[in-house]
């Protein structure tokens, strides 16, 4: 079911990083002891902070909570002390709701949700799915709101899914980029760094290419008449297409072509070097195999 | 008579692809028979279709053209052979490459006899394409084709064949002999001279000189003479023999071409009068080698080289000074020379007509046009293709028995790292 409250949710990447960091830490601490088999994935809990202005809910930050799973009790004192501390630093942020990890919502969640209603009359619930699914392209995050629905004659609070967008500030973009490109601890030579950078660029371009192809295919089918003619979609596509080229003056063209040619010249030089090195090896091998006069005694260095 | 008819019937019957080998063996045996029935061959030929019965047609043609032919006979033969070469089926004729080569050679001879080399160009080009498994193979017809183009002065027609890089030589499939290779290099070089592409001409002549040999032959000597002249025009000096020149060539070649070597030494002094004098005194020697035109071009190139040397010393110079320095007759002639050089792109300069000053400039190429981008792209693709070819040849040599045995034999002298059966070397294949 989708939310009908009409609120728009904006999520900042810092929250996602915090939650995943929390989960990874707990999981690593648990599997630290190798004597017993790996326990089922732990659930971590915390609060999310943010600002709600009108119909927009913007989630900026989060902190962790102490939750006693055996007694299903949230550590209220801890939560309140933390809340006060955060209020001093970020006076604008309020506790907007809470988060947890797992693949789907559970029944115990609604109790926690109700417990938080005294801080915020309509808290949000952020669920992160920590299972890694390579086929899935979207973020494994879902935001739930609580709504009063009448089911079987009994009014009860249930969770409804809400849509959200990701919002970034420049600083966040840099830090996310940095975290995404964690280099391996060994082999941090220039070659592997360059290779890592180029593979990242390559996969990004590949993804862009596939998405544009999907759009193109859809537009072609609209042209043929197989798909319905949607004005809003076409307007969005048109605005996307008009974003490039960003600059189009003649001076830009000159500089751009010059830089492009410089890169091409470097590539040319690199290919020639590689070709000469292959040729060098080939000539050495040929000489050792067939040349009767210039037999080199001892080892010859191969590059 | 009957046996000939029987043979014709067999050819017609067996020209489907399954029975080709059978047909081929039949034809090989019936060579004698064909020679005996020479007069009737014309009739037999007309009853066969060259497009379908190529193999049989080939044999008949070959027998018909052996021996001396009258004018009318050779016209006839040339016409038949031209159509045949254009329409024959490649798989069928690949079974008999020597016969095919012989027919093509006859075509060339007849065309020469009729003084019409132009007629042989297209059929020979078609023949090359039919016999080549791919464009990287050298065939025996390459040399004949290039010779025809030279005699007919149709250099452009040969470009498509000349521009193919030759990587493979397969004697079994193409029936090639070393003489064909040398002739190919020699004629190829001459065509490039005709097209004024002196760099490529140098490449071809160098191939001819460095081809493996145990004795000196006339083609190599002729190629070296042209090589000396062209390298004077293009490079300003004669380069030393590369390391892979066969030793017999290295030792003996210079003594056969003494005139040219002396010309080269006098060219290096950059003295126009000396060079001119030398050429006039030895005019007969150059003329007998058909190199007089090239020798005159050597003189022209010496002027150009001297003018180019001036650009390294002066920024601006008056026309009179240029004429004096380069020993030209006057400022008018100097101006003509420089105009020609600017047009050819050999020099970058501006002539100020008012005071007769020439200012030399740098290469204005900024490398910032999209035309340059396309060119760079093309060059990179070429190099990548060449690199792929090199790696494949490299792999072939690495797996070669001779190489592996040589490496294995040297192993005891190495350090203790090599314990493997097949030696492992550290390659960083980028």
From TrEMBL, chain A:
Gene3D superfamilies: Cytidine Deaminase, domain 2
Major site of localization recorded for this protein: cytoplasm
Subcellular location, record wording: Cytoplasm; Nucleus
Organism superkingdom: Eukaryota
Pfam family for this entry, one: JAB
Family per record: Belongs to the peptidase M67A family. CSN6 subfamily.
Name of the protein in its database record: COP9 signalosome complex subunit 6
Automatic annotation (TrEMBL), chain B:
Domain PCI positions: 197-365
Cited InterPro entries: COP9_N, CSN3, PCI_dom, WH_DNA-bd_sf
Subcellular location: Cytoplasm; Nucleus
Major localization class: cytoplasm
Superkingdom classification of source: Eukaryota
UniProt KW keywords: Cytoplasm, Nucleus, Signalosome
Pfam families to which the protein is assigned, alphabetical: COP9_hel_rpt, PCI
PROSITE patterns: PCI (PS50250)
Transmembrane segments: none
Family: Belongs to the CSN3 family.
PANTHER family: 26S PROTEASOME NON-ATPASE REGULATORY SUBUNIT 3/COP9 SIGNALOSOME COMPLEX SUBUNIT 3, COP9 SIGNALOSOME COMPLEX SUBUNIT 3
Protein name listed in UniProt: COP9 signalosome complex subunit 3
Lineage: Eukaryota, Viridiplantae, Streptophyta, Embryophyta, Bryophyta
